[in-house]
Design goal:
276 residues; alpha/beta; 9 helices; binds pyridoxal-5'-phosphate
């Protein structure tokens, strides 16, 4: 197995991918969009390269499904996995798309359910919920996307303008519609989370899967952030339930929170002295 690095925006470089392909390569797997920094990968180009070389292409589209358009034909996708609860379906249900002719082996053995691919009794309410969620998300996708992108960009630019020593993580435009991930120098993401939480704002400093750990996000390290900047990062994700008033609220409160935390930071004190 070969792991590829990403560029400073979090994208896989096609030339790296091409160089890593060897005669034994049977599968390329690249996530469609990153869950922390929101970067959307060049999926169609990767799929095209994979198919030119006769290699299967899998993508983890958990973040992308229902948020950005996906076309398995145009994008040369052979295998695509999604998870229900990321697009409004119940927890405990997911799906994999398998292109006709692609043969996989099961991971769960037992009964003959799901064409012998996944033993165990089907979760009917979950399946129906996932189907409905995908149907609704797909029907509303263009409007949802436009609305969220507009809110997201106002949030991002508002924060970057109001708060010095802040930097957007992830690609500025090839980005999930609702994702805002920003690093603030001289402070800790965890302290921002506490102060935001006290105001009723749910945010994250990394991925939910690592919220119990104090290690910096491996995604932020992979895009080249030094540890201290990776520690001072904040992810705010938007959905259609969010409102313009909530964006205003963040744009009012976050600069105060960052300023308050920086007042307590000896590092920031040094920098402010130097600036004067
Ligand atoms: C959430 C997530 C997963 C895991 O899905 P679960 O069903 O929550 O285990 C996998 N990949 C990405 C990109 C995700 O965002």
């Amino acid at each position: 197995m070969t792991y590829l690095d990403v560029d400073a925006d979090g994208k896989v470089r096609l030339e790296d991918l091409e160089a890593a392909i060897c005669p034994e390569t049977i599968l390329i797997s690249v996530m469609f969009a990153n869950n922390e920094i929101g970067t959307i990968e060049p999926i169609a180009e990767i799929g095209k390269l994979a198919h030119e070389k006769g290699i299967y292409f899998h993508t983890d589209a958990v973040q992308a499904m229902g948020h950005v358009p996906i076309d398995v034909e145009e994008m040369h996708i052979d295998l695509l996995s999604i998870s229900g609860h990321k697009l409004g379906a119940p927890k405990g249900i997911g799906a994999i798309y398998i292109r006709k002719g692609v043969r996989i082996t099961p991971l769960i053995f037992g009964g003959a359910q799901e064409k012998k691919m996944r033993a165990g009794t089907e979760n009917i309410p979950g399946i129906v919920g996932l189907g409905k969620a995908v149907e609704l998300a797909s029907a509303e996708l263009p409007e949802t996307r436009a609305t969220l992108e507009k809110m997201r960009d106002r949030l991002i630019h508002g924060i970057l303008e109001a708060i010095p020593y802040s930097k957007l993580n992830g690609h500025p435009t090839d980005r999930l519609p609702g994702n805002c991930n920003i690093s603030f120098e001289f402070i800790e993401g965890e302290s921002m989370l506490l102060l935001l939480d006290a105001l009723g704002v749910a945010a994250s400093s990394g991925s939910a899967c690592t919220s119990g750990s104090l290690d910096p996000s491996h995604v932020l390290l992979a895009i080249g952030l030094p540890h201290e900047k990776a520690h001072g990062s904040l992810r705010l994700t938007l959905d259609t339930d969010n409102t313009e008033e909530e964006i205003d609220f963040i744009l009012e409160k976050l600069p105060q929170i960052v300023a308050r935390l920086r007042e307590m930071s000896p590092l920031y004190e040094e920098i402010s002295k130097q600036a004067k």
